[in-house]
Specification:
alpha+beta
Length: 141
């Protein structure tokens, strides 16, 4: 399927605009929380960033409240191709909350050692404790 230059520029412009809107909206949610103004850079986070944080509490913002979850594991993901090209891993968070299961979506997370950042999570399914997964797949330079 050939992609015209015009179509490429249209899609690229829409993507850039959506990133700008999303980033500004997320930053607005995280700002105004005392002591949580530091924004973490997901592009620099690796498995080694999260491994020391296993067992610690993270908070994520859903609807109008902050929900506590605990990072329970950091697992390396199999990567297609040559291993030095990517850093791929999965974070597993658990929650003992009995409130409704939150849908997969991008949420603002915060951690005392990392600051605030956006993260796309996927629920494991019904049941308590609830688990949520976040998958990272970074190309190495």
């Amino acid at each position: 399927m050939a992609v015209s230059r015009r179509h490429f520029l249209e899609v690229g412009s829409m993507f850039a605009a959506s990133v700008a809107v999303t980033t500004n909206g997320i930053a607005g949610v995280a700002a105004g929380l005392p002591g949580w103004d530091d924004e973490a850079d997901l592009l620099t986070m690796t498995q080694d960033t999260f491994k020391p944080l296993i067992g610690t509490e993270f908070l994520f913002h859903a609807h109008t409240s902050w929900n506590p979850v605990v990072l329970t594991s950091v697992e390396e993901s199999p990567v297609a191709g040559i291993p030095p090209l990517a850093d791929a891993f999965t974070l597993t968070f658990s929650s003992t909350s009995t409130s409704r299961l939150l849908p997969q979506d991008t949420y603002v997370f915060r951690h005392a050692g990392l600051g605030s950042f956006q993260l796309f999570i996927v629920p494991s399914g019904p049941g308590v404790p609830r688990a949520y997964y976040a998958v990272f797949n970074h190309l190495r330079s």
